Amino acid sequence: MIRLKEFLLLHCIVLLWGFTGVIGKLLHQESFIIVWYRVLIASLGLVGYLWITKTSFILNRAYVIPIILVGSVVALHWITFYYAIQISTASLGILCLATTTLHVVWLEPIILKTAFQWKKLWFSLIVVAGIAFIARDYKGNVLLATGIGLLSALLAGIFSVSNAKLSQSIPSPILSFYELATGWVGISLYLLITRFPLSKFYISWNDLWWLLFLGLVCTSFAFIAAINLVKKLGAYTVSLTINLEPIYTMILAVILLNEHKTLSIEFYVSAFLIVCTLLLNAWLSSTPKKIIT
């Protein structure tokens, strides 16, 4: 029964992550404002968690610059991700994000000094081909959204691999807090320098509730819960389940945004092939670990 509850919680977390793309469509705000509020709220949420668990905030000076750089990349990733969604669809945005694995393939040997894996490269190229097939006949905003979505995937690959290295020396909650906090400071400085209108920061009560849900539930809570589940269920189970995120996003987009009315049959055929490739890659690349009961 306990293991069943943990599996259900894991799928709820992946569902929450899949919901973040849909929230980007539901919010009537620019991508900069969405991310500014998200990292602020998520940072405060992590502060509460670290305070309750009595975790020290002390950070080795040697990691300050790397964390600032990675935090900036995280912020840019979310900004480009939400912008791509806002000018196209949540489904297209999440599929573009699926190309993150392509960048992880060539970044891991450089940053983590691991062996280059040709198998992962071929799987990643299949995903890229699927994205190219979807975008081949599109023009204007959708084509632009595809390009920005692919840039977002590159940024996601950079911070994912960088975090894999930094997390070897820094506890994950501490690492996440400082990255989110520096990301918020970076966005704030940019908005200040560019004299971003203060009126843009006004949000309705409806948007506020969505932003609180996005920052506290989909970011802070989901991250902390995912860390605990990796310890209990094993990295294999968690990593395999996370690959269901595109499916959840597209299902939610159909239910809440009626995106099935704007997407072609070619889109869904390509999406099916991409998701199958992601699941096959996760299954072949992972080694099952004993589940802790």
Molecular structure report:
With 293 residues, this protein is mostly helical. The chain has one domain. The protein contains twelve helices and no strands. It has helices at 2-26, 31-52, 64-86, 90-97, 100-111, 118-135, 141-166, 172-193, 205-233, 235-242, 245-257, 265-285. Helix 3 runs antiparallel to helix 4 (90-97), helix 5 packs antiparallel against helix 6 (118-135) and helix 5 (100-111) packs parallel to helix 7 (141-166). The longest helix has 29 residues, at 205-233. Residues 287-293 have low confidence and may be disordered.
Helix/sheet category: mainly alpha
* Count of the separate structural domains: 1
Choose one word for the global shape.
Answer: globular
Number of strands: 0
